[in-house]
Amino acid sequence: MMDSLAQTGLPFMKMHGAGNDFVVIDSRGRGAVMSAGLARAVGDRNRGVGFDQLAEITDAAEADFGLVFWNSDGSQAGACGNATRCVSDYVMRDLGVETVSLVTARGQLRAERAADGRVWVNMGEPQLDWASIPLAQEVDHLHLPLPGDPVSVGMGNPHCVHFVQDAAGIDLAVLGPKIEHDPLFPQRTNVEFAELLSPCRMRMRVWERGTGITLACGSGACAVAVAAHLRGMIGPRVALEVDGGTLEVDWRDDGVWLTGPVARVFDGMLSADYVAANR
After folding, report:
1. Partner of 255 for a Cys bridge, out of 28, 47, 122, 212, CB 3.0 to 4.6 A?
2. Which residues contact 253 (CB under 8 A, 6 or more apart)?
3. Is pLDDT at 16 greater than 60 in this prediction?
4. Regarding the domain with residue range 151-253, which homologous superfamily does it belong to in the CATH classification?
5. At 168, is the secondary structure helix, strand, or coil?
6. pTM value?
7. Which pLDDT score is estimated for 3?
8. Contact, 12 vs 22, CB < 8 A?
9. Each residue of 22-63: pLDDT tens digit?
10. If pLDDT is split at 50, 70 and 90, which confidence band does 236 have?
């Protein structure tokens, strides 16, 4: 398949959810086409297209479609809530349906369109034991032995959530990479700083592993909501103000549900020469 793409080029969509931006490649019917090298090249905002994550839509025998996520450094991400919402919106429109099933590294998930037109996605149950988050050793995930007394939550990818008085004042560029690479996180970690605004509203900023500072993070919003609820700060439903807009999380009996804005910005084509040079 890569040989044919080197002849024809590779179509893509640019989408975003609350400023969390994605390149989306639809590989259904032709086999997976992405590689770490091509993901790194496309993710370069000067020499490629640029993205926070790349989402590749794949065929899935047990669901309507599958999703594979790539970070801009070429590594894979186990989950990406905002990309999942964006792609689910696209597939629902494509199929003319109001609900879809999908498969990610996390397992089988479900998305549905609400009466107000927004897409909610069930991100599954949070991972709350140290081995499945994962952490490098058995510790209390609600009170990690790190500065700031953070909480660790798995949402298909690991998160380290800090509760602070002023999220806007945090130097993410300094603290984010330091925490991401702490030895306590064998697969590295996403890093969130969250400020309680009211019992049903929070302010959140995020450093994503393999990418850096982003305007929003869907799985991070879910992790913050779970951590804050487990700490007794909020109820099961909360709105999170992120740098790119507002996300909503609802921890229901069947999993952690996420919604927020989606946008399909433009469609494009990676040239055959570009694909061949970066395959």
Report:
1. 122
2. none
3. yes
4. Diaminopimelate Epimerase; Chain A, domain 1 (3.10.310.10)
5. helix
6. 0.93
7. 55
8. no
9. 999 999 998 879 999 999 999 999 999 999 999 999 999 999
10. very high
What residues contact residue 241 under an 8 Å CB cut-off, 6+ apart? 197, 201, 202, 203, 204
Indicate the burial class of 238 (C-beta count within 10 angstroms; 0-12, 13-18, 19 or more): buried
Q: Which residues make Cβ contacts (< 8 Å) with residue 69, sequence separation at least 6?
A: 53, 54, 55, 56, 76, 77, 78, 79, 80, 83, 104, 105
43: tokens are: 């993710």
- Check whether 197 has a pLDDT greater than 90: yes
pLDDT in tens, 252-275: 999 999 999 999 999 999 999 999
Task: Note if the bond before 134 is cis, omega within 30 degrees.
Answer: yes
CB atoms within 10 A of CB 72: 23
Look at the domain 2-123+262-278 and name its fold: Diaminopimelate Epimerase; Chain A, domain 1 (3.10.310)
Tokens standing for residue 212: 């850096």
Residue 64 Ramachandran class (φ > 0 left, ψ -120 to 50 alpha, else beta): alpha
Six-digit token pair at 93? 């429109």
Say how far apart CA 152 and CA 134 lie, in whole Å.
9
- Two structure tokens written together for 135: 């952490």
Tokens linked to 66 = 């599958």
Catalytic residues: 80, 217
**Residue range(s) occupied by CATH 3.10.310.10 in the chain:** 2-123+262-278, 151-253
- Using pLDDT thresholds of 50, 70 and 90, give the confidence band for residue 4: low
Where are the extended beta strands (E) located within 87-137?
Answer: 99-104, 107-113, 119-122
The H or E element that residue 266 is part of is: strand 263-270
